[in-house]
Design goal:
The chain has 147 residues and is of the alpha+beta class. Helices cover 23% and strands 37% of the residues.
């Protein structure tokens, strides 16, 4: 499965407590996986927890999302998330997250997160720093990895 788009930003086994009374993973857990993946991705982009707390005080904050559920995920399934960058603006970026079942490689869920670069002190959108922009560009979807 090395030909999948993007980089891996999250992986774990689904716990029975992650499932609803219908027997599959609850909607909130899909978004939790993507949220956790975003923090992993931000670290790769140069926005670490330490940087957010005492450095530049910047973080991406989701302002809009669109999601599609493709296949069920059940307790015991190992899932992993791969992330790419769809668009880069002056103060925002759109991230494409795809959640797969590791056992069979099936795409179970995908979502687009439009996120602003948030100045954590001012609580307003801020320009994306050049070093972060360069790392975003390296993760941008193109015709060879947009699958």
């Amino acid at each position: 499965m090395t030909d999948l788009p993007g980089i891996e930003t999250f992986r774990r086994a689904v716990d029975p407590g992650d499932c609803d009374f219908l027997g599959h993973m609850n909607v909130s857990r899909y978004l939790q996986a993507c949220s956790d993946g975003m923090f992993s991705l931000q670290s790769d982009l140069g926005l670490t927890r330490t940087d957010m707390e005492s450095g530049r005080r910047l973080s991406f904050a989701v302002v809009h999302l669109e999601s599609d559920f493709r296949a069920e995920v059940m307790a015991g399934d190992v899932i992993f998330l791969r992330s790419t960058v769809r668009e880069i603006g002056t103060k925002s970026a759109t991230f494409h997250h795809r959640l797969y079942r590791a056992g069979d490689g099936v795409l179970a869920f995908e979502t687009l997160f439009k996120a602003v670069c948030l100045d954590l002190a001012a609580r307003r959108a801020a320009p994306i720093p050049q070093d972060v922009r360069e790392r975003l560009e390296a993760l941008k979807e193109d015709k060879t990895n947009a699958a």
